[in-house]
Amino acid sequence: MKEISKYQRLRKKLIENSDPELARQMESYMRNKFKFYGLKTPERRKSYHDLIKLEKANKKIDWKFLDQAWADEHREAQYFVCDYLIALEKYLKFEDIDHIFNYVKSKQWWDTIDSLIKPIGNIGLRDDRVTDLMLAWSKDDDFWVRRVAIEHQLLRKDKMNVKLLNAILENNLGSSEFFINKAIGWALRDYSKTNPDWVKNFISKHHNELATLSIKEGSKYLS
């Protein structure tokens, strides 16, 4: 008997644990942009825990497998790709961002975009070439690509490249796009936990250019 592929094993696990009613609810929540198998996050991750564990043991990224999963019409398969890349991030290198970029550019919505920032951000901690790349992305015509640039340093704390953060945010001032202005607010709010004075000064300096949403989100933890 022919051995089933890793993607077929993944799909089988997701189907086995699926909930059609939950799938309908999830599809509605996501504005019916994607189909769902119907798994909550804990159940979804549990269903492919062993598969990711085996992939970790291989110590390399199986892009063919990930491309097959990304092509699946159900959203949980894209979530798997994001979880896989986060779990195996130490095996990623700068050149792999080109492949991740294909995921950034397809099946776009906030859920996968906000997960793909994590492996890209981690590569940036190891490779300075990500700095210039994120500067370029921060001026891209595609606002989802710009959102990745804005958010890729989230949770950096004292490892924040402040000069880069400042440049990326300034490149996106005056936007009318909700997902950009929300991302700017999140970036400011996150860094305010580490350097509130810098965030206060940034908001003060750019108050007339920042969207109300960005100021509201960015000021959340400021006294």
TrEMBL record:
Matches recorded under InterPro entries: ARM-type_fold, DNA_alkylation
Official protein name in the record: DNA alkylation repair protein
Organism of provenance: Lactobacillus paragasseri
Taxonomy of the source species: Bacteria, Bacillati, Bacillota, Bacilli, Lactobacillales
